[in-house]
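Comment thread on ticket #2218

A.B. wrote:
> Attaching the input chain for the structure job we discussed in standup.
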Amino acid sequence: MPLLEWSAALELGQPAMDATHRDFVRFLNRLDAAADAELLMRLDEFIAHAEEHFGQEEAWMEQAAFPPLGCHKGEHGNVLEVMREVRRRVAAGEAHYARTLSAALAEWFPQHAATMDAMLADFLQNAGFDPGNDT
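C.D. wrote:
> Ran it. Output below, let me know if you need it in another format.
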């Protein structure tokens, strides 16, 4: 059974955001299900996804002049900092930190999506900004 299942409760009604969030859940579940020998590889994949995911959201926030950009970006930065520290520890042989991280992110992500990301999705829609066409 996956650690976190995708559900309609996680959907924000912005197809580009929802697709990225589905990927986040998929990478999270892959990390959680990984054998110890694969943890570092799965963690690297997850971190790369998170960096791209958060960076894309932050670009949208900047382009649309989203007022609470700093708060949202700060939360992303904190999560990435923890992910990188966990990566360092897993690389040093402390594999259990990857399991702790995946469990913590499975709790954090639905709340983040339902609050900060939902506010962003609503703001983008009201501003007429299409995240799927941000080139």
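A.B. wrote:
> Thanks. Noting for the ticket: Residues 96-126 form the longest helix (31 residues).
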